[in-house]
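Support request, please re-run this one:
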Amino acid sequence: MYDIKALYEAESVEHAIKLLQEHPEAQIIAGGSDVLVQIREGRRAGVELVSIYMLDELRGVSIDEEENIRIGSLTSFAHITKDPIIQKYINVLGEAVDMVGGPQIRAIGTIGGNTCNGVTSADSASTLMAWDAVMEVTGPEGVRRVPIQDFYIKAKVVDLKPGELQTAILIPKSSYENCYGHYIKYAMRNALDITTTGCSVNVVLSEDKKKFERVRAGYGVAAPIPMRATTAEEFLKGKNVTEKNIKEFSEMVLEDVNPRNSWRASRALRRHISVVMAERALRESIRLAGGEING
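Re-run finished. Output below.
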C-alpha cells in the first residue's frame, strides 16, 4: 500500500535540519494528507520521509515582538479557523482554510503543508498572497524570511533550499491593521473539492470610509502559482468607493490573471468568474470595513 523506504522522526527543528542533510533525497511529512496519498498512488514510491509532526514548537498562532501575526507551520486548518487572534485580525484566512476538504482533513492538514506543496489551488495561498505574508524558513544557515511573492517559484516548486523547512508564516502589522477581507472559492461541488478558481480581496478604507487607501486581490488557479491582480489594485488606490470604480476594478483583473484550460474548467470560464468573484469579494470587504458604496 505504502512504498516507504525509511521514516525518520524529528525531535526538534535542529534535528529535522540534520536529518534532511543526512538524507538529501528525503521528503518532509507533517499531517500527511498530501504526501501519503501521493505515495499510495505510486508517485513517491520508495521515498524516505522526515516527519516533523511531533514538533509542537511549530504549532499555534501568536503575535510576536514585531507585532507580526505568527502562524506556526504545523498549525492545523481547524486550529486556525477557531483561533481568537485569527478571528480578530484576519478572519478571512480562517474562512478560507475552513473550505479545505472535510473535517478530518482540516483536523490534520497544516498550513505549512498547504503552502509548501506549491500548488496554485491551495485555499490558504490566495489569502496569504493578498495579505503580503512572509514565510519563515529555517535551515543549516539559520533563519531567513521570504516574501510570499518570492516563495512560489513555479508550479509545485517553492523556495526551500536543501536542508531547509518552513517554520512559520508571518502576517505583518502593516498588512492586517484596519484591513478587512473576503475569500470566495468556486468549485464544481460545494464541499470536498479542489478549487476551480479562488479569489481573496481585502481593503483599507480612509477614515471617513469614502476612499480606498489600499486594495489587494489574490488569486488561486488564475496562473501557474498563486498571484496578485496588481494592475487592478493600483487602479483603486486613492479612488472613491463608487459603483463605477468597483466595476472597473473587477474588469481590470483580466489584465493580470492568466488561467489555464483543464478538465475542471476552461480558461474562458475562469476568466469570467475571476471578474465576478473580484467584484463580489470587494463589495463584501467594503461592507466588513464599514464602508458604503456610492452611485
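The longest strand covers residues 197-205. The chain has three domains: 4-51, 58-174, 177-288.
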